[in-house]
Design a protein that fits this description.
Elements: H1 2-12, H2 20-30, H3 47-80, H4 90-102, H5 111-140, E1 142-150, E2 156-164, E3 167-175, H6 183-197, E4 202-207, H7 211-223, E5 228-231, H8 233-247, H9 249-266, H10 269-279, H11 291-304, H12 306-312, H13 316-319, H14 327-336, H15 339-363, H16 373-387, H17 392-410, H18 413-420, H19 423-426, H20 435-448, H21 452-466, H22 475-479, H23 486-493, H24 498-508, H25 515-519, H26 521-527, H27 537-557, H28 601-611, H29 618-621, H30 623-626, H31 630-638
Parallel strand pairs: 1-4, 4-5
Antiparallel strand pairs: 1-2, 2-3
Helix pairs in contact: 1-3, 3-31, 5-27, 6-7, 8-9, 8-15, 8-17, 9-14, 9-15, 10-12, 11-15, 15-16, 16-17, 18-20, 23-24
């Protein structure tokens, strides 16, 4: 291909010097190309005309070359079963830029280099990068985040991360499948992590609210007198939403009906096509951070598409389809055309929407949420009350569920103390200066401030803060109470009360959620596959360490999360209850590469799909598998001719037929 393009370029390098006849002769070689004609009035030997002509030729040559290059890149994606979202990975763009700078003849990294040399280099670079984070841990403190989970192969994984205002840092993951996760063992793991980070730097340890983690957290607080164990706020709010579905019959039946609609449609490609004609391409599934938030957000999406769904199930396309006559089809049609179902969706959302707003707050990486969760939960309760028109019998069951979880699990001294010193709320007429808030504040002071003189000083400084004395009363301080982040506000105006300033900044810089651990699940699951169990434990940890921290670093550089980092939707809203027989005629075979040298691609399809948008650094994350696809890789870098398979080569047959997932 490259020789052909060079030959073409050589033919196009015509002489635009003295003789216009030569131009005509040159044109006749490549066909009539009007853009090569010299403009009227151009003299013999015009350098301007020559430059313009050569520029046009180069442009056309590069255009053709780009098409060939993009075609080869696409072929590399196809033959390696790489998800299309990876093209949006900024590391992919950087890779191509460096390849272009090198020019023709780049020798790609070897299997060993990408597995050993460059992986170790990335680990060392990240270690250097993390030194800045560790300095901030000493200055404002940090939160250790830990979460246990079980992957699709029933392996038990435990992640450990550290969060501070500068960002979240991944430390390591453990495969705990062979470890009994008793309270003693969980305590041992958490205590070791505190020792690694430094007890003097740790303000809180966040885990989920499982019984063993809760008991281990209590033991940790008994041993480590200057830190708190805090349950994950996102997990607790998700449990509230789960309780709505469990204990309120209307929520249970409505969510079940909504799930029946989505699973019925998304199990059948023909219905997906019909649906998108009515919804103008929009889908019904709305992903969220947690399972039960997904349930309610999908109900909201159904409600937004109410008209489209009712039109679809009343349309000729539906009535003439074979699905309208089967039992499940009739049931779904009845649900969609039932006005009571849509009224019930609104009722469910009136209860869940305020909590989902809090969930987004605590799960966001944009700002530390510790100073806001106390007020946010109070506002959510009041909003729910208003949504039900202050009718007690309507909102009281919702309140009871929220209060039970809030008081027993979520409400912690740190939440109250951060609320008290948050200038966003402290000077508001609606500020709740009650017993529960003060009790939380004093408990935090007792735990963090052991020196009696310092504690007495802070008590006096607290009065200055409450009454806006000194720098707290400056016009700029008043104007910025709600414009600046709470920690930045204290940094700017708290110098007159240095002891209180340090205390306030440390607790206002805290996160409330360990959801950063959950975002790392896919990275660990990707590495721990049967296909990769030849990697030593140390190397697997290094690979996850690099992938996760590169992702966190790239995320900080972007003002918003790119689409390749989007979350997956909950599978149960797509695949639950699929009846294969209904769709048998429409199941399509997946695209398969007709090349025996790439037969292993089929076995990698599931693994590569599971990576999805979470691939972080293409050369590292995919290197071990990608370099086994050496023919397309070398063709892409070196412009080598493509080895086309002979017509006698056949793709291996698949034992099972797979459904095409919704796009």
């Amino acid at each position: 291909m490259l020789k052909r393009m060079q030959k073409k370029k050589k033919r196009l390098r015509i002489d635009v010097g003295d003789d216009e006849a030569n131009i005509g002769n040159a044109q006749s070689e490549v066909g009539v190309i009007n853009v090569f004609n010299k403009p009227k009035g151009s003299g013999a030997g015009s350098r301007t005309g020559s430059t313009q002509t050569q520029s046009t030729i180069n442009h056309m040559f590069k255009k053709d070359l780009r098409e060939e290059t993009c075609k080869q890149i696409a072929r590399f994606f196809y033959t390696s079963a790489i998800p299309f979202n990876c093209i949006k990975n900024p590391e992919f763009t950087k890779m191509l830029e460096l390849v272009g700078k090198f020019g023709q003849g780049l020798k790609p990294p070897s299997y060993h280099e990408i597995r050993e040399k460059y992986l170790n280099m990335e680990v060392n670079e990240i270690e250097e990068m993390l030194k800045e984070y560790k300095e901030e841990w000493k200055r404002v403190g940090c939160s250790i985040m830990s979460d246990g989970w079980t992957d699709r192969k029933r392996r038990s994984i435990c992640n450990f991360l550290v969060n501070s205002p500068k960002g979240t840092v991944f430390m390591y993951s453990l495969d705990t499948s062979d470890i009994s996760k008793t309270t003693d063992k969980v305590f041992e793991m958490l205590d070791e992590m505190v020792e690694t980070v430094g007890e003097e730097n740790v303000i809180q340890v966040i885990t989920d609210n499982a019984a063993n983690y809760k008991a281990a957290g209590k033991r940790l607080m008994e041993k480590r007198k200057h830190l708190y164990w805090t349950p994950c706020a996102a997990h607790c709010i998700d449990l509230m939403l789960e309780d709505f579905e469990k204990h309120i019959p209307l929520h249970k039946t409505t969510i079940s009906s909504g799930r029946k609609i989505t699973t019925f449609i998304y199990a059948r490609t023909m219905l997906i096509s019909i649906l998108r004609n009515f919804t103008k391409g929009r889908d019904l599934i709305r992903p969220a951070t947690t399972r039960f938030a997904t349930s309610y957000l999908t109900l909201a999406c159904l409600n937004e598409n109410k008209g489209a769904l009712m039109n679809m199930f009343s349309s000729k396309e539906w009535t003439e389809s074979k699905f309208s006559s089967i039992r499940d089809g009739k049931q779904v049609e009845n649900v969609v055309l039932d006005n009571g179902f849509w009224k019930n969706i609104v009722t469910c959302l009136q209860a869940a929407a305020p909590l989902i707003k809090v969930l987004r707050l605590v799960d966001s990486d944009e700002k530390p949420a510790m100073g806001f969760i106390y007020e946010a939960m109070n506002c959510a309760r009041e909003r729910i009350k208003q949504n039900f028109n202050n009718v007690k019998k309507s909102y009281e069951p919702i309140w009871n569920i929220i209060d039970e979880r809030w008081e027993a699990q979520l409400h912690r001294p740190l939440h109250a103390a951060a609320y008290y010193v948050n200038p966003h709320f402290r000077y508001s007429p609606s500020f709740q200066n009650d017993y529960f808030v003060k009790d939380g504040l004093f408990k935090c002071l007792d735990r963090f401030i052991l020196d009696e003189d310092t504690r007495s000083t802070i008590d006096r400084q607290m009065v200055d803060f409450s009454e806006a004395r000194g720098m707290f009363g400056l016009n700029s301080a008043k104007a910025n109470r709600e414009k600046m982040s709470p920690a930045d506000w204290w940094l700017a105006y708290g110098d007159g009360c240095p002891e209180l300033q340090k205390f306030a900044i440390r607790i206002l810089s805290l996160t409330c959620s360990s959801s950063g651990c959950e975002r790392n699940w896919s990275a660990f699951e990707m590495v721990h596959t049967k296909r990769r169990n030849r990697l030593h434990q140390k190397k697997m940890n290094a690979l996850v360490y690099v992938m996760s921290n590169l992702k966190l670093r790239n995320k900080e550089k972007r003002s918003h999360v790119s689409s390749f980092d989007d979350m997956h939707s909950d599978d149960e809203w797509i695949t639950e209850g699929i009846d294969v027989e209904d769709e048998e005629d429409e199941v399509e075979q997946p695209l398969y590469v007709n090349d025996p040298s790439l037969a292993y691609i089929d076995s990698l399809q599931t693994w590569m799909t599971s990576i999805g948008p979470h691939v972080l650094n293409l050369p590292i994350a995919l290197g071990i598998w990608v370099l086994r696809c050496h023919p397309p890789w070398k063709e892409f870098l070196l412009g080598l001719p493509i080895n086309k398979p002979s017509s006698s080569q056949k793709a291996p047959e698949r034992d099972e037929r797979e459904r095409r997932p919704p796009i």
